[in-house]
Amino acid sequence: MEKWLEKINWAELLLHAGIWAGKFLLIIILFLIVRSIGRSVINQMFSRAATHRKMPSGRVITLQKLVINMFSYVLIFVFAGIVFKQFGLEIGTLIAGAGVVGLAVGFGAQGLVSDVVTGFFILLEKQMDVGDYVTIGGVDGIIEEVGLRTTHIRSFDGTLNFMPNREISTLANHSRGNMRALVDIGIAYEEDIDTAIQVLQEACDKVKANNENIMEGPSVLGVQTLGASDVVIRIISKTKNGEQWAVERQLRQALKEALDANNIEIPYPHQVEVRKIEK
Amino acid sequence: MEKWLEKINWAELLLHAGIWAGKFLLIIILFLIVRSIGRSVINQMFSRAATHRKMPSGRVITLQKLVINMFSYVLIFVFAGIVFKQFGLEIGTLIAGAGVVGLAVGFGAQGLVSDVVTGFFILLEKQMDVGDYVTIGGVDGIIEEVGLRTTHIRSFDGTLNFMPNREISTLANHSRGNMRALVDIGIAYEEDIDTAIQVLQEACDKVKANNENIMEGPSVLGVQTLGASDVVIRIISKTKNGEQWAVERQLRQALKEALDANNIEIPYPHQVEVRKIEK
Amino acid sequence: MEKWLEKINWAELLLHAGIWAGKFLLIIILFLIVRSIGRSVINQMFSRAATHRKMPSGRVITLQKLVINMFSYVLIFVFAGIVFKQFGLEIGTLIAGAGVVGLAVGFGAQGLVSDVVTGFFILLEKQMDVGDYVTIGGVDGIIEEVGLRTTHIRSFDGTLNFMPNREISTLANHSRGNMRALVDIGIAYEEDIDTAIQVLQEACDKVKANNENIMEGPSVLGVQTLGASDVVIRIISKTKNGEQWAVERQLRQALKEALDANNIEIPYPHQVEVRKIEK
Amino acid sequence: MEKWLEKINWAELLLHAGIWAGKFLLIIILFLIVRSIGRSVINQMFSRAATHRKMPSGRVITLQKLVINMFSYVLIFVFAGIVFKQFGLEIGTLIAGAGVVGLAVGFGAQGLVSDVVTGFFILLEKQMDVGDYVTIGGVDGIIEEVGLRTTHIRSFDGTLNFMPNREISTLANHSRGNMRALVDIGIAYEEDIDTAIQVLQEACDKVKANNENIMEGPSVLGVQTLGASDVVIRIISKTKNGEQWAVERQLRQALKEALDANNIEIPYPHQVEVRKIEK
Amino acid sequence: MEKWLEKINWAELLLHAGIWAGKFLLIIILFLIVRSIGRSVINQMFSRAATHRKMPSGRVITLQKLVINMFSYVLIFVFAGIVFKQFGLEIGTLIAGAGVVGLAVGFGAQGLVSDVVTGFFILLEKQMDVGDYVTIGGVDGIIEEVGLRTTHIRSFDGTLNFMPNREISTLANHSRGNMRALVDIGIAYEEDIDTAIQVLQEACDKVKANNENIMEGPSVLGVQTLGASDVVIRIISKTKNGEQWAVERQLRQALKEALDANNIEIPYPHQVEVRKIEK
Amino acid sequence: MEKWLEKINWAELLLHAGIWAGKFLLIIILFLIVRSIGRSVINQMFSRAATHRKMPSGRVITLQKLVINMFSYVLIFVFAGIVFKQFGLEIGTLIAGAGVVGLAVGFGAQGLVSDVVTGFFILLEKQMDVGDYVTIGGVDGIIEEVGLRTTHIRSFDGTLNFMPNREISTLANHSRGNMRALVDIGIAYEEDIDTAIQVLQEACDKVKANNENIMEGPSVLGVQTLGASDVVIRIISKTKNGEQWAVERQLRQALKEALDANNIEIPYPHQVEVRKIEK
Amino acid sequence: MEKWLEKINWAELLLHAGIWAGKFLLIIILFLIVRSIGRSVINQMFSRAATHRKMPSGRVITLQKLVINMFSYVLIFVFAGIVFKQFGLEIGTLIAGAGVVGLAVGFGAQGLVSDVVTGFFILLEKQMDVGDYVTIGGVDGIIEEVGLRTTHIRSFDGTLNFMPNREISTLANHSRGNMRALVDIGIAYEEDIDTAIQVLQEACDKVKANNENIMEGPSVLGVQTLGASDVVIRIISKTKNGEQWAVERQLRQALKEALDANNIEIPYPHQVEVRKIEK
Questions:
Q1: Which of residues 158-217 of D touch F (CB under 8 A)?
Q2: Rounded mean pLDDT of B37-60?
Q3: Which residues are CB-contacts of F257 (< 8 A; sequence separation ≥ 6)?
Q4: Which of A146, C275, D210, G208 is the 20 to 30 A CA-CA neighbour of B69?
Q5: pLDDT for D175-204, tens place per residue?
Q6: pLDDT of F65 above 80
Q7: Is E181 exposed, middle or buried (0-12, 13-18, 19+ CB in 10 A)?
Q8: What is the DSSP string of F217-279?
Q9: CA-CA-CA-CA torsion for C88, C92, C94, C99, nearest 10 degrees?
């Protein structure tokens, strides 16, 4: 290694640079062709499987994106190997090169390994499919792709979030079963609680009769809090997955109108004013 | 290793690819058959054990899910070993391959080991069973499955949380014994405290007489806080597990009505207004 | 290792599986018998020791639970060793197996070692006994068991908390000596401070005369804060351990009534209203 | 090594210092020439490619900046190698020098490796292009450059943020598809909810008719919250990317004017004042 | 190792268990005797030293508790060594046993080493003595014991805090020199600032004349803040250690009474009310 | 090493101590002379370069301070080497001394390596120059020096902050291009929004006509928020770097005066008071 | 090692214990003599240097405390070495003892190395001198001692903070140059802004004329905020180091009096009250 800098023949170097550039271009073109062929083959396979076997579409898309994902990574590493080899570098010695560089690389790359290990188990345990509504580490949205290294989540405001799998610790999947609709409504301290509960329950029953997305309830639980200015009554219900917000909105409107119709007050914040006059 | 890229015979490669694909398919099918047989055997074993021996159902489900869980992981690693072998890779050398890659893998995979070690002790110490209501690391809900790597918790709003066991540090299990019902109620500064305590205690006694879920109390402790606008009285009670919220709701309604009936004021926030007129 | 997959004789394997299952069952049954005998022996030993030697009961229970705890762990590892041996695995080689797996296990298991080291010193330094009221890392409650790996804390609301010992850093033990009762009470800015202090001190002296749980004080310290609307007077006292809340509640009621009886105002929040009329 | 301090010939040293300085200057000049030539070649290549092949300009700039970035780093390390060699230091032995220094360097430099590994995958997975509006780790702005080690983000207030790639964990890209416009508007408790919803929907339809940036909606969802003083109605819509704020502003003005025109009150915060007169 | 399970002679084992238990008991008793003798010797030594040499008592207790602490740890490790030896285990091989277990133990035990290293330097640098009032990592109280591994702090509410020394980073010692008393008092915007400062300074001078715990001041600094409703004047003073709270309380009362006597208003929060009448 | 303590000849030791002290002094003096010469040479070089080549002064100072910085570190390590050698210690063996000490040093010194690596890339990528206004990790101010280990930042309140380079993760440089001026102004709900926008835009245009530091705008964007008591209008503009605050101040005054002149109300917070009279 | 427990001759042991105790005492006494001599020599050296060479006193004390600090540590380690040797322990083998203990010690002691490395650079870069007012990691105060391991900071309330150097990351030194005085003052929305600015600037000029601690300004910058109830005007100034608070206090009083004298209102918080009468 000591002498390589002197041994450089600057004229010959320019010639080699041309040859190198040519080789490099050839490899790139080859790479692009192989990749596009591979991808279309994989896509076709999955679309056939989906039509023939009628698997749930979320799972099919999850697997399809994953296979393309893995295919791309393998391809890139193979071609990178070919490129390095053309320029006389041995990947083997590069990777096995222990010592300081090895230490730094080992520590620096542990994040990548964590990503893949976590990603593998998320897929194995089917923690989420494409199309699920999830909350992971403060990000809230619909899964667009589950990869070995990264998961793509589309937020409700349209943002696309790229999350390395190692960032996924506790995963809250909101698309696995019926959901709860919960409404808290405050009535005045002067009102009779039993009457109010009866009025609210009747309103709930009417809402249920007209909405087939409600699976259980809605039922009035009772006094949840004795607030500063109101007695808070809680109503809960079970709805079909994804319908919880619509049901909550419908319940809020119906309950408010029922209380109005029965002259039960929903109070504003109260304050007792003790008056002193000075100066 | 240096020559493997040149040695690739592209025509022969295509042929091999076909054979490989065939072998791969065969292994996958074998895997699916073995898995489904294994699972049904395990399920049958547990359902018989449950009916014959009358073990508590939470524990039976915990063990059943755990056994299936372990069975699946072992199966996957065995089949992965077979697949790798077919393609000429030695798992032994792969794993023992120290150096940079080994370092990175060792660090990256420590999370997985942590998961299993923690999971093993959670099961050994019976910290939770399927069906328990727990709070772990900010997640609140009912246990659906305790696995070696992951615990599944169903939140009350219907969300299913997947939590790697390493995330579990302090585990609060709310299903192990009687629970406390606690109600704080504020009375006006003008009211006599002893009278109010007597009225509240009588209301508590009436509630207890009609509710067999109350194990101890409810008893009035006394003045918990001298608040900005009210004198806060605390009432506590012991109830059967899971009944604490219902008892609290019942107590809140009963105590509020008792104070109303005895003309003891529950005050709104007060403010003294000192008036100055300018300009 | 290379050939083990081919060498599997599938027919013979089924036979062996049966034998293995039998051995496994035998070991499990043996394990359950030994464990229940061991436990009852330990329990009897301790109950005799407790009646004969009259040690403080908290410490006896701590030691008893610890001994059972250690007995269980040792038993489990011994039986696990027997099981592994039956299936031809050497624990020695398993544990000493350095390389990537060793690294991962070493890192992953450090939490377990931390638990045991910390647990050992907590027991050695007698930082807590069963029955103590402690606060550790945000969890507040009564100690139910101090183990080598885990500590069980019963919260006041009935929840049972399982805390790995490594989570215990600063341990606040509230059951080691007399406790302080502290009451802050606000009087109006118009009142004479010296008069108020005298009235409050007299009320304190009356409370003390009737309550033998008070060890020192209660004494009025003076003006703690010049608040937005009130002059805050602080009263402190020393009580027997566990009686601080009851004393505080009694003091709050007595002091409020003393101020009422002497026409000293406890003011509501004040606001000066400067009035401007527009439009 | 032991004798090198004695062997220093101070006179000769001054002479050598001059020669060293000369060599150093020569290398620096050479470095600057090579760098400027290399950069202009790369820039020209990309500008031709952009005009001939009509690639999307964000991607072209991303690649161009990346190639210059990598070219600069390679050049610097090559010249640093030449400089070190001139002064008799072997990079090889420097890097491979294990022991204490090696350990410290290995740990200290892991951040650099993390940067490059993360940067490589961000580019490979096309998580962002120059010109995208992103949010990363609390920084909000437009991407100016994606490098192997650092990403440059221009905040909306004009600040240029330099972010090492390892700091990038979850990347929120706001430039990938249609965005949501969301307006919450509160109406008085006295108003009829159905009428209000109808008025708001009509106003929404008018806005849509005149704005081609709106892709879906806007549609009135219903009662989102029963607030302290108002009933909050939610309106959402899908717009072209980047147009969400303009659409929200337009909607806010239109909806407010529609409510005014129909005499539907948007209420101020309410408070009930209970009056007591003392002293 | 392979054969030890078979070689167990179950009858002989029971006999041995008895002998082992006897030996174990003997060692425990020996341990208790040696410990109690050692402790009383150390205590006597220190009490003589304290009376003869008149060292400051805080330091004597610190050293005495430390010596007992170290004596206990050494004793325990010696006896643990004896016990292990009796049962045929070599501590040497146990500790030197590298490999996976060694790695885990090394990592797990680093906390213990950190405790001792930090503890050693805290003692060497005399950062605190028994009886000092300190604040460490959010815990506030009086030092009861400074050990090599743990520091005991008694909070003012009576709680005893056990803190591993590694948790001690920045240590705030409030018992090393004079302390500051600081009082902020607000006057009305209508008052003349110079008059108020003069009145307050006179009151300060009177307080100082009657209190020998005040070392410097109290002096009025001037206008600290122009608040929302008041002009805040700051007064500071230096007092003997531990007397700062008493002096602050005395100052608050004296300053409030001085302002009252001179008709300078301490204002309540102000709000200008602009009135509009609707509906 | 075992015998060195016995071999100490105490008389000879005193003589040696004198000689050592003399040598030490000589080295120190030599060090101070070399340092002051070196520094003045570097400073002169840079001041000539600055006047001859007219480089931007921020960059010249950055480089000058860096070169002095590196010169000082090299000098110190060389002289430390000489000192150690005089006292018979080999730096080589000191540094290469693996084992426990080496491990501790390696871990302890990693912060230093991180500082230098980060510092090197900050300089290479020209992330900041002396005189730039930056925000790094919560510190806000003007760069005074960029060193290999530490960066000096002068806060606007005059404080000088010393920040180790490893603390620099995301660096926000506010001196790279035009800045935004942003003013939010609230108008009453009763006002006509279109009129208000027109009035504000006219005021903006007048401000722009008289201020050449404004590069774009200011333009009125529209209704940013429907606030609790006001309709908030947003105005933004682009200004020369460093002029954003002056422009914002000018805009605030001009817009407020324009609204006053056109009788458009800037409302105070509103509250609806519902009056109830009790007792 | 196996036999050492048997080989203990208990009678001889007691004799040896006496001899050991004697040796130990001798060493301690020697240690105390050497230490006190060394300290007084160092102190005398520095006091001469300070009077002869007139170095800035802060720097002299910093160096003096540092030298004593280092002298103490070296002495302690030398004597500890002698003590260990007397009792037959080799420090060399102790330290070099790799394996589990070595690993634990290496990790545990890294904090100590970090302290010394950081301390060395803080001293080398002269980041602070004794007497400087600094803010480090939330601690605010005057430097009393800069040591190799610990820095002592005296808070303004009299507390002495001991901070390990590794805790020092960003160091804010408030004693390096002129400081800024900043006053924000709010005027009513009804006032004319230009008049107010003129009045405030005149008051500022008067303050400057009488205070030689003001280096620049004070000058009125303009409208900093359009607040909820007031228009906030900002005034800034540069003062001598340490005089910023006194100047701010003087400015606050002068500006408030100037506004009063010119009848410009400093407004209280405003609220518009819309009145509705119900029930």
A1: 158-164, 167, 185
A2: 75
A3: F203, G193
A4: A146
A5: 988 999 999 999 999 899 999 999 999 999
A6: no
A7: buried
A8: EEEEEEEEEE-SS-EEEEEEEEE-TT-HHHHHHHHHHHHHHHHHHTT---PPPEEEEEEEE--
A9: -140
Rounded to whole angstroms, how far apart are CA atoms E239 and E214? 4
Query: Within the 28-47 window of chain A, which residues sit less than 8 Å (CB to CB) from chain D?
Result: none
Find, in chain G, the residue whose alpha carbon is nearest to that of E236. Answer: G157
Q: Are C41 and C71 in contact (CB under 8 A)?
A: no
The CATH fold of domain B179-261 = Alpha-Beta Plaits (3.30.70)
Taking alpha carbons only, the member of D223, D179, B157 closest to residue A242 is B157
**What stretches of D54-137 show up as alpha helix (H) in DSSP?**
57-86, 91-96, 99-124
Neighbours of A12 (CB within 10 A): 9
- d(CA E265, CA C179) in angstroms, rounded, equals 40
Which chains have 3 or more CB–CB distances shorter than 8 Å to chain G? Answer: E, F
Look at residue C156 in the predicted model and tell me its pLDDT. 92
User: Is residue F270 within 8 angstroms of chain D, CB to CB?
Assistant: yes
Choose among E2, E104, E276: nearest Cβ to C279: E276
pLDDT at B108: 63
Phi then psi for residue C142, to 5 deg, are -100, 135
pLDDT value of position D278: 56
Whole-angstrom distance, CA of residue C250 vs CA of residue B197:
13
DSSP-based three-state secondary structure for B240 = coil
Sequence-separated (6 or more) residues with CB below 8 Å from residue A204: A217, A218, A219, A220, A235, A237, A251, A254, A255
On whether the CB atoms of residues C274 and E274 are closer than 8 A, the answer is no
Nearest Cα residue in chain C from B89: C2
Domain boundaries defined on chain A? 2-97, 111-173, 179-261
Interval F146-168: pLDDT, tens: 887 889 999 999 999 999 988 88
In the structure encoding, which two tokens stand for residue C107, read together? 């890192």
* C238/E158 touch (CB, cutoff 8 Å), yes or no: yes
Here the tokens at position F50 are: 């600055």
Domain range B111-173, CATH architecture:
Roll (2.30)
**What confidence score (pLDDT) does residue E4 get?**
47
Residues from chain E contacting residue C221 (CB–CB below 8 Å): 245, 249
Determine, for residues B150 and A221 on separate chains, whether the beta-carbon distance falls below 8 Å.
no
For C106, which residue in chain E has the nearest alpha carbon? E104
The answer to whether residue C100 neighbours chain E at the CB level (below 8 Å) is no
Using the beta-carbon criterion (under 8 Å), do G271 and F274 form an inter-chain contact? Answer: no
E27 neighbors E86 (Cβ within 8 angstroms):
yes
Taking the Cβ of residue G89 and every Cβ of chain F, the question of whether any pair is shorter than 8 Å is answered with no
pLDDT digits 0-9 by tens, A97-107: 444 555 556 66
Would you give the distance in Å from CA C172 to the centre of its chain?
9
Q: B75 falls in which pLDDT band (50, 70, 90)?
A: confident
ipTM: 0.76
HEC states along A93-156? HHHHCCHHHHHHHHHHHHHHHHHHHHHHHHHHCCCCCCCCEEEECCEEEEEEEECCCEEEEEEC
- Could you tell me if F250 lies within 8 Å of chain G, comparing CB atoms? yes
Residue numbers of chain C with a pLDDT score lower than 70? 1-14, 16-17, 20, 53-58, 77, 80-81, 83-109, 277-279
Phi, psi of F172 (to 5 degrees): -100, 110
Identify the CA nearest to B146 among candidates B169, B166, B129, B124: B129
List, edge to edge, every strand of the sheet that includes D179-187. Answer: D179-187, D231-239, D214-226
* pLDDT tens string F168-177: 888 999 998 8
| Residues in contact with B136: Cβ distance below 8 Å, sequence separation at least 6, in sequence order | B151, B153, B163, B167, B168, B170, B171, B172
For the domain bounded by C2-97, which CATH number is listed? 1.10.287
Which residues face A277 on adjacent strands?
B275
Regions of chain G with pLDDT less than 70: 1-17, 20, 53-57, 77, 80-81, 83-109, 277-279
